[in-house]
Protein backbone atom coordinates (compact mmCIF):
# COMPACT_ATOMS: atom_id res chain seq x y z
CA UNK A 1 0.00 0.00 0.00
CA UNK A 2 1.48 3.41 -0.90
CA UNK A 3 1.88 5.69 2.07
CA UNK A 4 -0.48 8.63 1.38
CA UNK A 5 0.42 11.69 3.41
CA UNK A 6 -1.50 14.95 3.63
CA UNK A 7 0.07 18.12 2.16
CA UNK A 8 -0.50 20.14 5.32
CA UNK A 9 -0.62 19.59 9.07
CA UNK A 10 -1.61 21.40 12.27
CA UNK A 11 1.19 22.73 14.44
CA UNK A 12 1.93 25.08 17.31
CA UNK A 13 4.60 27.64 16.43
CA UNK A 14 6.52 30.30 18.30
CA UNK A 15 7.32 33.55 16.55
CA UNK A 16 9.66 35.09 19.13
CA UNK A 17 11.66 34.02 22.19
CA UNK A 18 9.54 35.71 24.86
CA UNK A 19 7.46 32.88 26.32
CA UNK A 20 4.44 35.26 26.18
CA UNK A 21 1.07 34.01 24.88
CA UNK A 22 1.44 36.40 21.90
CA UNK A 23 4.53 34.45 20.74
CA UNK A 24 2.52 31.22 20.19
CA UNK A 25 0.23 30.54 17.25
CA UNK A 26 -1.73 27.49 16.17
CA UNK A 27 -1.31 27.15 12.42
CA UNK A 28 -1.66 24.94 9.36
CA UNK A 29 1.68 24.37 7.59
CA UNK A 30 3.34 22.06 5.07
CA UNK A 31 4.09 18.52 6.23
CA UNK A 32 7.92 18.53 6.31
CA UNK A 33 9.79 17.18 3.29
CA UNK A 34 12.35 14.54 4.22
CA UNK A 35 16.09 15.01 3.81
CA UNK A 36 18.65 12.21 3.49
CA UNK A 37 19.01 10.39 6.82
CA UNK A 38 15.70 11.63 8.25
CA UNK A 39 12.50 9.91 9.35
CA UNK A 40 9.01 11.41 9.23
CA UNK A 41 7.14 10.64 12.44
CA UNK A 42 3.35 10.97 12.77
CA UNK A 43 3.25 12.33 16.30
CA UNK A 44 1.05 10.51 18.81
CA UNK A 45 2.01 12.54 21.90
CA UNK A 46 4.64 14.99 23.03
CA UNK A 47 5.60 15.80 26.59
CA UNK A 48 6.48 19.20 28.03
CA UNK A 49 9.76 19.42 29.93
CA UNK A 50 11.62 22.22 31.75
CA UNK A 51 13.93 22.42 28.71
CA UNK A 52 10.91 23.51 26.60
CA UNK A 53 10.10 26.30 29.08
CA UNK A 54 13.68 27.57 28.77
CA UNK A 55 13.58 27.23 24.97
CA UNK A 56 10.41 29.36 24.64
CA UNK A 57 12.34 32.22 26.24
CA UNK A 58 15.59 31.68 24.31
CA UNK A 59 17.42 30.50 27.43
CA UNK A 60 18.13 26.88 26.42
CA UNK A 61 21.36 25.46 24.94
CA UNK A 62 19.64 25.22 21.54
CA UNK A 63 18.23 28.29 19.77
CA UNK A 64 16.51 27.83 16.39
CA UNK A 65 15.62 30.15 13.56
CA UNK A 66 12.10 31.59 14.03
CA UNK A 67 9.27 30.93 13.51
CA UNK A 68 9.65 27.35 14.65
CA UNK A 69 7.59 24.49 16.05
CA UNK A 70 8.90 23.88 19.58
CA UNK A 71 8.81 20.57 21.49
CA UNK A 72 11.89 18.43 22.04
CA UNK A 73 10.37 15.08 22.91
CA UNK A 74 7.55 12.87 21.64
CA UNK A 75 6.47 9.55 20.22
CA UNK A 76 4.69 8.33 17.14
CA UNK A 77 4.77 6.11 14.08
CA UNK A 78 7.34 6.26 11.28
CA UNK A 79 5.48 7.20 8.07
CA UNK A 80 8.43 8.19 5.87
CA UNK A 81 12.16 7.51 5.53
CA UNK A 82 14.57 9.80 3.68
CA UNK A 83 17.01 6.95 3.13
CA UNK A 84 17.23 3.22 3.75
CA UNK A 85 17.85 2.49 7.40
CA UNK A 86 18.97 -0.63 9.19
CA UNK A 87 17.47 0.60 12.46
CA UNK A 88 14.01 1.84 11.37
CA UNK A 89 11.25 0.80 8.99
CA UNK A 90 7.88 2.29 8.02
CA UNK A 91 5.25 1.58 10.65
CA UNK A 92 7.70 1.40 13.56
CA UNK A 93 6.49 2.93 16.80
CA UNK A 94 9.21 5.20 18.12
CA UNK A 95 10.23 7.57 20.90
CA UNK A 96 11.76 10.59 19.17
CA UNK A 97 13.44 13.92 19.78
CA UNK A 98 13.76 16.99 17.59
CA UNK A 99 17.10 17.91 16.03
CA UNK A 100 19.22 21.01 16.74
CA UNK A 101 17.66 22.67 13.67
CA UNK A 102 14.11 22.80 12.40
CA UNK A 103 10.67 22.03 13.76
CA UNK A 104 9.91 19.96 16.84
CA UNK A 105 7.24 17.69 18.25
CA UNK A 106 4.30 20.08 18.88
CA UNK A 107 2.79 19.22 15.50
CA UNK A 108 1.02 16.39 13.70
CA UNK A 109 4.26 15.35 11.93
CA UNK A 110 7.97 15.88 12.61
CA UNK A 111 11.01 15.19 10.41
CA UNK A 112 14.06 14.28 12.46
CA UNK A 113 17.29 12.35 12.03
CA UNK A 114 16.83 8.59 12.05
CA UNK A 115 19.31 8.49 14.94
CA UNK A 116 16.88 10.66 16.96
CA UNK A 117 14.30 7.85 16.92
CA UNK A 118 14.30 4.82 19.20
CA UNK A 119 12.02 1.91 18.22
CA UNK A 120 9.74 1.03 21.13
CA UNK A 121 9.48 -2.44 22.61
CA UNK A 122 6.00 -4.02 22.20
CA UNK A 123 5.48 -3.69 25.94
CA UNK A 124 5.88 0.11 25.81
CA UNK A 125 2.84 2.26 24.95
CA UNK A 126 3.11 5.36 22.76
CA UNK A 127 2.28 7.56 25.77
CA UNK A 128 5.12 5.98 27.75
CA UNK A 129 7.32 6.44 24.68
CA UNK A 130 6.56 10.18 24.68
CA UNK A 131 8.24 10.43 28.10
CA UNK A 132 11.08 8.01 27.47
CA UNK A 133 13.92 9.82 25.76
CA UNK A 134 14.72 12.75 28.04
CA UNK A 135 14.11 11.78 31.67
CA UNK A 136 14.63 7.99 31.93
CA UNK A 137 17.85 8.13 29.91
CA UNK A 138 19.11 11.05 32.03
CA UNK A 139 18.26 9.30 35.32
CA UNK A 140 19.97 6.17 34.02
CA UNK A 141 23.06 8.11 32.87
CA UNK A 142 23.38 10.13 36.09
CA UNK A 143 23.47 7.00 38.23
CA UNK A 144 25.82 5.23 35.78
CA UNK A 145 28.18 8.21 36.18
CA UNK A 146 27.79 8.00 39.98
CA UNK A 147 28.76 4.32 39.78
CA UNK A 148 31.80 5.12 37.62
CA UNK A 149 32.91 7.69 40.23
CA UNK A 150 32.68 5.05 43.00
CA UNK A 151 30.02 7.10 44.68
CA UNK A 152 29.20 5.97 48.24
CA UNK A 153 26.17 8.24 48.71
CA UNK A 154 24.21 10.67 46.53
CA UNK A 155 22.30 13.86 47.28
CA UNK A 156 19.76 15.20 44.76
CA UNK A 157 17.70 18.40 44.56
CA UNK A 158 14.24 18.81 42.95
CA UNK A 159 13.50 15.23 43.88
CA UNK A 160 9.70 15.65 43.46
CA UNK A 161 10.27 16.09 39.71
CA UNK A 162 9.51 13.20 37.33
CA UNK A 163 13.25 12.63 36.95
CA UNK A 164 13.92 12.95 40.69
CA UNK A 165 11.36 10.23 41.39
CA UNK A 166 13.09 7.95 38.85
CA UNK A 167 16.39 8.49 40.64
CA UNK A 168 14.72 7.64 43.98
CA UNK A 169 13.44 4.29 42.64
CA UNK A 170 16.63 3.41 40.75
CA UNK A 171 18.94 4.27 43.66
CA UNK A 172 16.79 2.17 45.97
CA UNK A 173 16.96 -0.75 43.52
CA UNK A 174 20.74 -0.43 43.50
CA UNK A 175 21.06 -0.02 47.29
CA UNK A 176 22.70 3.36 46.82
CA UNK A 177 22.22 5.70 49.81
CA UNK A 178 20.27 8.77 48.60
CA UNK A 179 19.53 12.03 50.34
CA UNK A 180 16.58 13.84 48.74
CA UNK A 181 15.99 17.58 48.86
CA UNK A 182 12.54 19.13 48.31
CA UNK A 183 11.55 22.77 48.61
CA UNK A 184 8.05 22.40 50.08
CA UNK A 185 6.76 20.42 53.06
CA UNK A 186 3.91 18.78 51.07
CA UNK A 187 6.47 17.23 48.69
CA UNK A 188 7.95 15.12 51.51
CA UNK A 189 5.09 12.60 51.63
CA UNK A 190 4.97 12.54 47.83
CA UNK A 191 8.58 11.39 47.51
CA UNK A 192 8.37 9.04 50.50
CA UNK A 193 5.56 7.27 48.61
CA UNK A 194 8.12 6.64 45.84
CA UNK A 195 10.44 4.94 48.33
CA UNK A 196 12.60 7.89 49.48
CA UNK A 197 14.01 7.15 52.92
CA UNK A 198 15.91 10.37 53.65
CA UNK A 199 14.22 13.66 52.72
CA UNK A 200 15.03 17.22 53.80
CA UNK A 201 13.21 20.45 52.98
CA UNK A 202 15.64 23.19 51.89
CA UNK A 203 13.17 25.82 53.16
CA UNK A 204 13.18 24.48 56.73
CA UNK A 205 15.03 26.58 59.38
CA UNK A 206 16.95 23.47 60.57
CA UNK A 207 18.05 22.50 57.07
CA UNK A 208 21.78 23.27 57.38
CA UNK A 209 22.22 21.36 60.65
CA UNK A 210 20.21 18.34 59.45
CA UNK A 211 21.98 18.30 56.11
CA UNK A 212 25.44 18.27 57.68
CA UNK A 213 24.44 15.39 59.97
CA UNK A 214 22.73 13.22 57.34
CA UNK A 215 25.26 13.83 54.56
CA UNK A 216 28.05 12.52 56.84
CA UNK A 217 25.96 9.55 58.00
CA UNK A 218 25.14 8.59 54.37
CA UNK A 219 28.74 9.17 53.18
CA UNK A 220 27.59 11.58 50.45
CA UNK A 221 30.24 12.23 47.80
CA UNK A 222 28.07 12.85 44.70
CA UNK A 223 25.60 15.71 44.27
CA UNK A 224 23.20 15.78 41.34
CA UNK A 225 21.62 19.20 41.02
CA UNK A 226 18.73 20.50 38.92
CA UNK A 227 18.16 23.75 40.82
CA UNK A 228 21.32 25.91 40.76
CA UNK A 229 21.37 29.25 42.63
CA UNK A 230 21.45 29.71 46.38
CA UNK A 231 20.15 26.24 47.33
CA UNK A 232 22.64 24.30 45.20
CA UNK A 233 25.54 26.56 46.28
CA UNK A 234 24.70 25.96 49.93
CA UNK A 235 24.33 22.18 49.57
CA UNK A 236 27.63 21.94 47.71
CA UNK A 237 29.46 23.97 50.35
CA UNK A 238 27.92 21.97 53.23
CA UNK A 239 28.62 18.59 51.57
CA UNK A 240 31.54 16.44 52.77
CA UNK A 241 35.01 17.08 51.31
CA UNK A 242 35.73 15.57 47.88
CA UNK A 243 32.06 15.78 46.82
CA UNK A 244 31.61 15.77 43.06
CA UNK A 245 28.70 17.98 41.92
CA UNK A 246 26.96 17.35 38.60
CA UNK A 247 24.86 20.29 37.45
CA UNK A 248 22.17 19.08 35.03
CA UNK A 249 19.45 21.75 35.40
CA UNK A 250 18.90 25.33 36.55
CA UNK A 251 15.28 25.48 37.67
CA UNK A 252 15.94 28.55 39.85
CA UNK A 253 17.54 30.34 36.86
CA UNK A 254 20.08 31.73 39.35
CA UNK A 255 23.88 31.55 39.29
CA UNK A 256 25.98 29.43 41.61
CA UNK A 257 27.91 31.37 44.22
CA UNK A 258 30.70 29.20 45.56
CA UNK A 259 33.77 30.00 47.66
CA UNK A 260 36.96 28.92 45.81
CA UNK A 261 38.23 27.35 49.07
CA UNK A 262 35.98 24.32 48.57
CA UNK A 263 37.89 23.48 45.39
CA UNK A 264 41.32 24.30 46.82
CA UNK A 265 41.15 22.83 50.31
CA UNK A 266 38.33 20.27 50.08
CA UNK A 267 39.01 18.75 46.65
CA UNK A 268 35.41 19.30 45.55
CA UNK A 269 34.63 19.37 41.82
CA UNK A 270 31.78 20.55 39.60
CA UNK A 271 30.88 19.35 36.14
CA UNK A 272 27.89 19.67 33.84
CA UNK A 273 25.69 16.97 32.33
CA UNK A 274 23.71 17.24 29.10
CA UNK A 275 21.98 14.15 27.72
CA UNK A 276 22.96 15.08 24.14
CA UNK A 277 26.66 14.95 25.04
CA UNK A 278 26.24 11.68 26.96
CA UNK A 279 24.50 10.04 23.97
CA UNK A 280 27.20 11.33 21.61
CA UNK A 281 29.85 9.76 23.85
CA UNK A 282 28.38 6.27 23.27
CA UNK A 283 28.80 3.93 20.32
CA UNK A 284 25.50 3.09 18.53
CA UNK A 285 25.71 -0.40 20.06
CA UNK A 286 26.16 0.99 23.59
CA UNK A 287 23.30 3.44 23.07
CA UNK A 288 21.00 0.72 21.80
CA UNK A 289 21.85 -1.55 24.78
CA UNK A 290 21.31 1.25 27.34
CA UNK A 291 18.05 2.38 25.76
CA UNK A 292 16.70 -1.21 25.67
CA UNK A 293 17.57 -1.63 29.34
CA UNK A 294 15.93 1.71 30.18
CA UNK A 295 12.77 0.79 28.21
CA UNK A 296 12.47 -2.43 30.17
CA UNK A 297 12.34 -0.31 33.33
CA UNK A 298 9.63 2.06 32.06
CA UNK A 299 6.86 0.48 34.10
CA UNK A 300 8.90 0.36 37.29
CA UNK A 301 11.89 2.63 38.07
CA UNK A 302 11.27 4.92 35.10
CA UNK A 303 7.50 5.25 35.35
CA UNK A 304 6.18 8.80 34.78
CA UNK A 305 2.77 9.83 36.03
CA UNK A 306 0.59 11.68 33.53
CA UNK A 307 -1.22 14.60 35.10
CA UNK A 308 -3.25 15.79 32.09
CA UNK A 309 -3.57 15.47 28.32
CA UNK A 310 -4.24 18.46 26.04
CA UNK A 311 -5.14 18.84 22.37
CA UNK A 312 -2.58 20.44 20.09
CA UNK A 313 -4.73 23.56 19.63
CA UNK A 314 -4.71 24.00 23.44
CA UNK A 315 -0.90 23.80 23.47
CA UNK A 316 -0.33 27.18 25.12
CA UNK A 317 -2.91 26.35 27.83
CA UNK A 318 -1.04 23.04 28.38
CA UNK A 319 2.24 24.90 28.85
CA UNK A 320 0.73 27.35 31.37
CA UNK A 321 -0.90 24.47 33.26
CA UNK A 322 2.42 22.59 33.39
CA UNK A 323 4.27 25.61 34.78
CA UNK A 324 1.89 25.75 37.74
CA UNK A 325 1.72 22.00 38.44
CA UNK A 326 5.20 20.65 37.80
CA UNK A 327 5.35 18.10 40.63
CA UNK A 328 1.93 16.63 39.82
CA UNK A 329 3.02 14.61 36.76
CA UNK A 330 3.70 15.11 33.08
CA UNK A 331 1.52 16.97 30.62
CA UNK A 332 1.03 15.39 27.21
CA UNK A 333 0.05 17.24 24.04
CA UNK A 334 -1.80 14.90 21.69
CA UNK A 335 -2.56 15.96 18.10
CA UNK A 336 -5.10 13.16 17.59
CA UNK A 337 -7.23 13.82 20.71
N1 LIG B 1 20.80 18.04 31.51
C1 LIG B 1 19.99 17.20 30.91
O1 LIG B 1 20.33 16.56 29.91
C2 LIG B 1 18.60 17.01 31.45
C3 LIG B 1 17.78 16.01 30.95
C4 LIG B 1 16.52 15.83 31.51
C5 LIG B 1 16.06 16.67 32.52
N2 LIG B 1 16.89 17.67 32.95
C6 LIG B 1 16.49 18.56 34.06
O2 LIG B 1 15.92 17.78 35.09
C7 LIG B 1 15.09 18.60 35.88
C8 LIG B 1 13.79 17.87 36.18
O3 LIG B 1 13.07 17.68 34.98
P1 LIG B 1 11.62 17.00 35.03
O4 LIG B 1 11.11 16.87 33.66
O5 LIG B 1 11.70 15.76 35.85
O6 LIG B 1 10.79 18.11 35.80
P2 LIG B 1 9.27 18.12 36.24
O7 LIG B 1 8.73 16.75 36.42
O8 LIG B 1 8.53 19.04 35.37
O9 LIG B 1 9.35 18.78 37.69
C9 LIG B 1 10.03 19.96 37.95
C10 LIG B 1 10.31 20.01 39.43
O10 LIG B 1 11.18 21.08 39.72
C11 LIG B 1 10.70 21.75 40.87
N3 LIG B 1 11.14 23.14 40.80
C12 LIG B 1 10.79 24.08 39.91
N4 LIG B 1 11.44 25.22 40.15
C13 LIG B 1 12.22 24.99 41.23
C14 LIG B 1 13.13 25.78 41.97
N5 LIG B 1 13.37 27.05 41.64
N6 LIG B 1 13.74 25.22 43.03
C15 LIG B 1 13.51 23.94 43.37
N7 LIG B 1 12.66 23.13 42.70
C16 LIG B 1 12.02 23.66 41.65
C17 LIG B 1 9.20 21.60 40.80
O11 LIG B 1 8.68 21.74 42.10
P3 LIG B 1 7.40 22.64 42.40
O12 LIG B 1 6.21 21.73 42.24
O13 LIG B 1 7.67 23.06 43.80
O14 LIG B 1 7.38 23.77 41.42
C18 LIG B 1 9.08 20.15 40.29
O15 LIG B 1 9.14 19.23 41.34
C19 LIG B 1 14.93 19.91 35.09
O16 LIG B 1 15.82 20.88 35.60
C20 LIG B 1 15.39 19.52 33.71
O17 LIG B 1 15.86 20.62 32.94
C21 LIG B 1 18.14 17.86 32.44
Describe the protein in words.
This protein is α/β, with parallel strands linked by helices and 337 residues long. The protein folds into 2 domains: 8-131 and 304-334, Quinone Oxidoreductase, Chain A, domain 1 (Alpha-Beta Complex); 135-276, Rossmann fold. Helix content is 29%, strand content 24%. The chain is built from 11 helices and 15 strands. Strands 3, 4, 5, 6, 7, 14 and 15 form a 7-stranded mixed sheet that branches. Strands 10-9-8-11-12-13 form a 6-stranded parallel sheet, sandwiched between helices. Strands 1-2 form a two-stranded antiparallel sheet. Strand 12 (244-247), helix 8 (261-264) and strand 13 (269-272) form a beta-alpha-beta unit. Helix 3 (135-148) packs across helix 4. The relative contact order is 0.14. The structure holds NADP nicotinamide-adenine-dinucleotide phosphate. NADP nicotinamide-adenine-dinucleotide phosphate (NAP) binds next to helix 1, helix 3 and helix 4.
Topology of helices and strands:
Blueprint: E1 8-14, E2 24-30, E3 38-47, H1 50-56, E4 73-81, E5 93-97, E6 109-113, E7 117-119, H2 126-129, H3 135-148, E8 154-156, H4 162-173, E9 178-182, H5 186-192, E10 198-201, H6 207-217, E11 222-225, H7 229-238, E12 244-247, H8 261-264, E13 269-272, H9 275-280, H10 284-296, E14 306-311, H11 315-324, E15 330-334
Parallel strand pairs: 8-9, 8-11, 9-10, 11-12, 12-13, 14-15
Antiparallel strand pairs: 1-2, 3-4, 3-6, 3-15, 4-5, 5-7
Helix pairs in contact: 3-4
This protein binds NADP nicotinamide-adenine-dinucleotide phosphate (NAP).
Amino acid sequence: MPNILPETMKALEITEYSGESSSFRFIEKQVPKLKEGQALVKIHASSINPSDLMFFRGLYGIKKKLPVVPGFEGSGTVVGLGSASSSLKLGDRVACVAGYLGDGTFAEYMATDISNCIPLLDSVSLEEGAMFFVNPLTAYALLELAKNKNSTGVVQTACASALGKMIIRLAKGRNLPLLNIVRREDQIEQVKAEGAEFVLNSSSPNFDKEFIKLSRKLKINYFIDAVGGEVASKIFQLSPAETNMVSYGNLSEESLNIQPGVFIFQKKTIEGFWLNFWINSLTPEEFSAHSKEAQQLLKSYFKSDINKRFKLESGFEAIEYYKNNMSAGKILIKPED
